[in-house]
Amino acid sequence: MGTGNTPGGTFTTSEGISFTRMGYGAMQLAGPGVWGPPADREEAVRVLRAAVEAGVDHVDTADFYGPHVTNEIIRDALAPYTGVSVVTKVGSVRGANREWLHARRPEQLREQVESNLRTLGVEVLDVVNLRVGGGPDGHSAVPGSLAEPFGALAELREQGKIKHLGLSVVDAEQVAEARSIAPVVTVQNWYNVAHRGDEELIAGLAAQGIAYTAFWPLGGFTPLQSGVLDAVAERLGSSAKAVAIAWLLHRAPNVVVIPGTSKLAHLRENLAAAELELPADALAELEGIGGA
Ligand SMILES: NC(=O)c1ccc[n+]([C@@H]2O[C@H](COP(=O)([O-])OP(=O)(O)OC[C@H]3O[C@@H](n4cnc5c(N)ncnc54)[C@H](OP(=O)(O)O)[C@@H]3O)[C@@H](O)[C@H]2O)c1
């Protein structure tokens, strides 16, 4: 991973894998509701190429986005993947009515890994996150053993189908259990300036040399809206979105962000966050946004 210019710097895990702290999230490159093709596929290809040209060295996806749609766009835009890694997720599938279904039995995970290999057009997957979670909002960690599903992925890694493993929507106990089975390079959870349930987890992962990848850095389907973000952005001559991303990059050295966008102009705005210094008074104001 790494292409020379590294927006926001890089974080190197205890396994020696480095991620540019500014990544890119491909989920919303699919159609509405993360289903079917996007309205403007050519723009989606341009966005992906521009992100990598700007130095972003990892793109987040899942074969259940579309389904298959974001992986196929990524393949068309980025194969043979020079200077960029693809981080995919397994553990879910989409139902016929567009529902998001858990699918974590070993045979289901093996199928999903094979499907990712096919749709991305590769012989080995760079990083595979086991997505767990659930709960009332569908995006919170739910305690429970990961031994069987993570063990199945560890076997696939040993067979050479996966280079590195990660986790998504998990708690500290689940990270510890997974690490007793195989190395974990990243944990991907919901975290942003208004949703901060994972402060302790981030610090714990930093001590273990694991990247914490913040999903929904801009609020996802419920865009972050805050007068404080707007006011800080205005003072700094920036945008509220860039300030929200810069806040994450200031949070801890192991925090990696994967903002998503389907538009080149938004991509440029988001990448600018890597250069945005937040003065102490701005950080103090942003601290007040808080939330769980
Ligand atoms: N592990 C998990 O369970 C999980 C769950 C959710 C998401 N994720 C990952 O996290 C990544 C990020 O999530 P996300 O894309 O849903 O949410 P996000 O990055 O928080 O926000 C993306 C949304 O913000 C808009 N946006 C982006 N930049 C903007 C800008 N500069 N100005 C105005 N609007 C802007 C985008 O619309 P435009 O297209 O119009 O720019 C899009 O609707 C996903 O791609 C996915 O890979 C993982």
Automatic annotation (TrEMBL):
Protein name: Oxidoreductase
Keywords: Oxidoreductase
Highest taxon listed in the record's lineage: Bacteria
Residues of the NADP-dependent oxidoreductase domain: 21-289
GO MF annotations in UniProt: oxidoreductase activity
A Pfam family that the UniProt record links to this protein: Aldo_ket_red
Example of a GO cellular component annotation carried by this entry: cytoplasm
NCBIfam families, sorted: PRK10376.1
The keyword Oxidoreductase is annotated on this UniProt entry: yes
Organism: Saccharothrix coeruleofusca
